Amino acid sequence: MNDTVRPIYAQGIFIVCSDGSITQEVIFDYLDRDLYYWNLLSREDEFEEELDKLSLNMQSFLDEEVIKINGKRVFPKVVDVDVGFRGSEDRPYITFYIMFKGDLRRGVNVYEDTYESEVSEYDYTVTWVFTGGLTVLRAYLGVNYDILADGKLLIFSVPKGFTTPGYEKIEFKL
After folding, report:
1. pLDDT value of position 1
2. How far apart are CA 170 and CA 172, in angstroms?
3. β-pairing, 135-140 with 167-173?
4. What are the DSSP calls for 87-104, one per residue?
5. Spatial CA neighbour of 164 closest among 93, 69, 65, 98
6. DSSP H or E stretch at residue 57
7. What backbone phi and psi angles, to 5 degrees, belong to 159?
8. Phi, psi (deg, nearest 5) at residue 167
9. pTM value surpassing 0.85
10. Order of strands across the sheet with 167-173?
């Protein structure tokens, strides 16, 4: 990524299924005054190289996290990455598709993520969707959150400048 490309917002949508699979769609919005990504589109080989770099970079961040489901470590994998534009050439977004699976049990299950604490450079919102017979019970995220739709949705936002706690925990029931 070019140094003139600046992140301005992010959104994560995490879908949890009763078989223990979790699919994440993480979207980063950027301001790109020099049109780095727009110009890269016309150079197919360089564009593919950039997608590979983006995927490897995100994977390295995921590999640094320790994610556990019911005390057992799981390993998220970037399965695809895409670049698009929001209305103009200087507003690219990058979408990462991430998947992993853990072993769920009847009753209470626990998702934990330990990561390096940092100061958020941009606002972001995360939505967890619990499908099938799953319902979220409570969470520790370091910020306020809402549980909606009879426990099927967990939503929270992190403001720019917030210091993340370095640990998140979500308890949910099967």
Report:
1. 65
2. 6
3. antiparallel
4. SSTT-EEEEEEEEEE---
5. 65
6. helix 44-64
7. -85, 155
8. -155, 135
9. yes
10. 72-74, 66-69, 108-114, 167-173, 135-140
CA distance 36 to 32: 7
Alpha-carbon dihedral sign for residues 71, 57, 94, 167: positive
Asked if 19 contacts 101 with a C-beta cutoff of 8 angstroms, the reply is yes
Identify the H or E element spanning 6: strand 5-16
Question: What CA–CA distance (Å, rounded) separates 85 from 30?
Answer: 9
Instruction: Give the percent of the chain with pLDDT over 90.
Output: 98
Q: Which amino acid is at 62?
A: L
Q: Are 114 and 140 in contact (CB under 8 A)?
A: no
pLDDT of residue 95: 98
The one-letter amino acid at 89: E
- Kindly give, in sequence order, each residue whose CB lies less than 8 Å from that of residue 139, ignoring residues fewer than 6 positions away: 145, 154, 156, 168, 169, 170, 171
What's the average model confidence in pLDDT over 55-68? 98
Q: At 23, which amino acid appears? A: T
Q: What is the pLDDT of residues 120-137, one digit of tens each?
A: 999 999 999 999 999 999
pLDDT band for 3, please (50, 70, 90 cuts). Answer: confident
Token pair 């959104």: residue: 11
